[in-house]
Amino acid sequence: MPWIDQVPAVVQGWFNGMESGNAIADVLFGDVNPSGKLSLSFPRRLEDNPAFLTFRSNKGEVVYGEDVFVGYRYYDKVGRPPLFAFGHGLSYTSFGLQNLAVSITQTTLVATVDVTNQGDIPGKEVVQLYVSPPETSEVERPKKELKGFRKVLVQPHATETVSIEVPLRYASSYFDAERHQWSVEKGEYMVLVGNSSASPLLSASYEL
Fold this sequence. Notes:
Immunoglobulin-like; 3-stranded antiparallel beta sheet; 3 helices; 34% strand
């Protein structure tokens, strides 16, 4: 999108069906406050894609050289900011996140955070929960992975407390190719909460 700096905003409509025109008009004229989030990362250049070097068939063979480092996991790993991050999305209001608290039981990770609507109109925000593996991990893992999310409607200048629950084994595990099973490493895991994969993220930790 080399023209992105020449426009004030972008509406990404995806596949809205026969009511697409009415839906986009409702957003453009402010009858609906948008709350969609991107389900993928938009690179600045084609060459920035993690699969750029292997996105072709070599005599019938396709190599998935990016392994688990696809999408935001790749951009995080190489420290390369995308044009638009996974989970990004704008609204006609703005939100603030604060007071992150994390607790675990033997089976569940629970994160709670306060979401404040800082504007003058109602809006919905998608709170996203990512988990980072221990720094002592013995395998090459993404810097963080999305593990849960929650959409919440917040009235103007009001605050809602959002709770996200994730099974602890899903929050912490990875597939060990050598052992042929899912495994969990001991150590300190970081919980990161924000409204996109690249937004300023609140952080807390838990120990296994």
